[in-house]
Amino acid sequence: MNDAIPPAEHYVGLMTGTSLDAVDAALVRITGHGMHLNGSKSLPLPDGLRRRIAAVSPGTPLREILDLDHALAILYAEAVNALLEDTGIDRSAITAVGCHGQTVWHEPDSETPTSLQLGNPSLLAQQLHITVVADFRRRDIAAGGQGAPLAPAFHHAMFASKTEPRVVVNIGGMANITLLPDANPDHIGGFDTGPGNVLMDAWIDRHQAKPFDRDGSWAAGVEVDGKLLDILRTDPYFAATPPKSTGREYFSLDWLDLRLDVRQGLAPQVVQATLCELTAGTIRDAIRKYAPDCKRVLLCGGGTRNRHLCSRIAAGLPDLKVEPTDDHGAPADWVEAMGFAWLARETMAGRPANVPAVTGAEKPLILGGVYSR
Ligand SMILES: Nc1ncnc2c1ncn2[C@@H]1O[C@H](COP(=O)(O)OP(=O)(O)O)[C@@H](O)[C@H]1O
Ligand SMILES: [Mg+2]
User: Fold this and answer.
1) CB neighbours of 204 closer than 8 A, spacing ≥ 6?
2) From CA 140, how far away is CA 126, in angstroms rounded?
């Protein structure tokens, strides 16, 4: 090491994913030696706001989009303020907030490719008196990329090993995989494997009015329906060659209902078990196909708490270690938010952070816009 190690810096990462469960805010301290989680705060999305976000479609009135953009910025500010209060750190000590924003539409493959995240970053910077970095995805999309997944560069910085081929799987609403065959950044791979929790959440919400299947215990109670599983798995997304990314505008209850039409009369619980196996199986397949030498699978995201799902992933990979990221420097629930703190740091330092081999963009790019304090 030389004597020019930069001083420690603090960043906040803000994540609201496709699950629409909560705003996750992570305070991280970045030093020359790595990154540490110094505090975290999760604010549940109020029910009304959740429903309005879930209802956004291309036909939603502009007024509603603008109101959501505003409401989310206010909620984000609340989450950051609560985090600062909890941790006792002064806002002047935060270099920047990396705000993912709330995705309401992700369509990187359309004729006019785009991905829209709401949560007005100008208003957020004004509310917080802290610099905000936001709109990470669209620069990559403008250069022909998917704009997703963006976590792989961060997963590499946090979890890559020189001696052990690893895979990181983030199971949020969607599931994405990062391939880390070694510590060489030129070898990073990754893509969205498909649905993570989103279909299971929607199905249990419809049948039991619960936001998710706690521990996967409903799914665990019955056998899967093999025929339905086959039907679901024939969706061309699963066999498509990466780069690829997806969202709830594709894998939705409408998607499921269409396929259930061909397989009527199944008990709701059997469908839940089958959806769980769909997520587990598509993750296992991605690992087998794209990381045949992998030795360790690190799991993160809310799906890590679905015990049945995790055991189904592990059961199909008996020769691999399958474990949460917790013992590797980042609690599984906070990896994504930490990632957006890290991405903000890269942008502030003027460094590109997309991985063209992952997103398909034509070149490495500095991501996002900077909204000064
Ligand atoms: N105890 C639990 N049992 C089963 N699933 C859980 C549990 N806790 C969280 N989850 C799942 O994790 C999801 C939230 O994960 P998260 O990583 O925040 O996703 P996103 O990034 O899409 O918001 C919930 O919607 C739920 O499906
Ligand atoms: Mg979430």
Assistant:
1) 210, 211, 212, 213, 218, 272
2) 26
Neighbours of 282 (CB within 10 A): 22
Radius of gyration from C-alpha coordinates of the chain: 20
Beta strand ranges found along 122-188 (DSSP E):
132-134, 166-171, 174-180
Q: What six digits make up the tokens of 140?
A: 């990559």
CA distance 236 to 234: 6
Q: Which residues of 13-39 are buried (b: 16+ CB within 10 A; e: fewer)?
A: bbbbbbbbbbbbbbbbbbeeeebebeb
Cis bond leading into 243, ω under 30°? yes
Could you give the domains of the chain? 9-148+334-371 (3.30.420.40), 151-328 (3.30.420.40)
- As a whole number of angstroms, the distance between CA 110 and CA 261 comes to 27
At residue 6, the pLDDT reads 72
Question: What is the rounded CA–CA span in Å between residue 358 and residue 243?
Answer: 6
**Residue 27 host element (H or E):** strand 22-31
Distance 354 CA to ligand 1 centre (A): 25
170 CA closest ligand 1 atom index: 17
Residues with Cβ–ion distance below 5 A, ligand 2:
17, 19, 21
The reply to whether ligand 1 has any atom less than 6 angstroms from the CB of 172 is yes
Q: Give the atom of ligand 1 at the shortest distance from the alpha carbon of 333.
A: 17
Average pLDDT over residues 283-304: 98
Name the pTM for this structure: 0.97
Coil, strand, or helix at residue 343? helix
Does pLDDT of 1 surpass 60?
A: no
